[in-house]
Amino acid sequence: MSEVRLEHLVKRYDTKCVIDNVDLTVKDKEFLVLVGSSGCGKSTILRMIAGLEEISAGSIYIGDKKVNNVHPKDRDIAFVFQSYALYPHMTVYENIAFGLKMRKMDKKLIDQKVKEAAEILNLTEYLKRRPKQLSGGQRQRVALGRAIVRNPKVFLMDEPLSNLDAKLRVQMRSELKKLHEKLQTTFIYVTHDQTEALTMGDRIVIFDKGKIQQVDTPLNVYNNPANKFVAGFIGSPQINFIDCKIINNTLIMHEPIIELEEDVANKLGNRKEVTIGIRPELMLNKSARIRFSVKVEMKELLGSEQIVYFSIGENKCCAKLSIEENIDDELMLGFNDKDFLYFDKETGERII
Asked: Are the C-beta atoms of residues 309 and 297 closer than 8 Å to each other?
């Protein structure tokens, strides 16, 4: 069993706490993605699981075994680094085989494992080449091959695609998903790229300032964010946040005044102010009951779609629409209050 369990995990550097009492269970054979902005602590979590970073407090279990004091090489994990970490003087074959040779494995078995991994990763014709003769994507596959041959319980991947160009990243995302399905092993993958998180993970963990903000499936995180941070981090372009006042069960959003439904008003309680969130793709519903026009400030053309920027009061907003739509200086917005996400203006926590 390849379940990974973190219990009350803490990491401090002197007086600074970078991982703050984290509890997390990664299921057997799951593809779990840790996502967050740079410096939030996600790579530190990965290094602690690998044994490359000391734990300040808490426990880590791989399967049923507590591994706090287990040497990295004995944890039965494979780590794929952002920088590939290949030996430049060795061939692809030698790089993939290196870990097995260090374990003094039988030469025939090493040869079999290297060739099997090379076939899975389409590297067979490159086995005699050195890293400098390979493209970025091929080097990344060599790093994966070195991990695969060890047949570990858990794969740990620290932003492995960040050095690749956009087209190659898309291709490698697909290859990694196929690899996970083929190997049926637990993958823990770290990225700051929300697109990678949404497209690759069975579940995603959103991190901020050393704390877990939400753990859920990509679809649930997108549709039901736990707080304003998660709502703003997941989704491209970013969700629109609009500060509103509440007076006598009506929501005042600069220009429109929206009568709140009774159950919504009850949940908002005695609040006088609230922040609502609405996704850019939900801003231009022509049959919606809330409609008003705004002045277009900027347009971005993105192939099959365009992003239009405007303001609602002091809030900078945008809408996503088809490239065929002809937009002039004025834009008629249309949305429904059932699509609103309500957040506490002070804490950022989700209300409804």
From this structure: yes
Which residue has tokens 């996502």?
Answer: 35
- CA–CA distance, 34 with 188 (Å, rounded to integer): 7
- pLDDT tens per residue, range 199-241: 999 999 999 999 999 999 999 999 999 999 999 999 889 999 9
Instruction: Characterize 134-173 residue by residue with b for buried, 16 or more Cβ atoms within 10 angstroms of its Cβ, and e for exposed.
Output: beebbbbbbbbbbbbbbebbbbbbbbbbeebeeebbeebb
Q: Are strands 330-335 and 57-62 parallel, antiparallel or unpaired?
A: unpaired
Task: For residue 219, give the nearest of 204, 233, 229, 208 by alpha carbon.
Answer: 204
Work out the average pLDDT over 57-61. 97
Contact 208, 37 (CB under 8 A): yes
DSSP class per residue in 265-333: HHHHTT-SEEEEEE-GGGSB-TT-SEEEEEE--EEEEETTEEEEEEEETTEEEEEEEETTS---SEEEE
pLDDT one-digit tens code per residue, 61-93: 999 999 999 999 899 999 988 777 889 999 999
Beta strand 31-35 pairing with 186-191:
parallel
d(CA 221, CA 204): 8
DSSP-assigned states of every residue in 38-96: TTSSHHHHHHHHHTSS--SEEEEEETTEE-TTS-GGGS-EEEE-TT----TTS-HHHHH
The reply to whether omega before 237 is within 30° of 0 (cis) is yes
Within 10 Å of residue 312's Cβ, how many Cβ atoms? 20
pLDDT in tens, 308-335: 999 998 999 999 988 888 888 899 999 9
In angstroms, the CA 316 to CA 117 distance is 50
The pTM for the full model equals 0.88
How far, in Å, CA of 42 to CA of 294, rounded? 40
Cα separation, 30 vs 28, in Å, equals 6
CA distance to 31, 113, 116, 157, 201, per residue, from 176 (Å): 10, 19, 16, 11, 11
Contact present, 219 and 197 (Cβ < 8 Å): no
Ramachandran category for residue 223: left, alpha or beta (phi over 0 → left; psi -120 to 50 → alpha): alpha
Residue 228 structure tokens = 């304003």
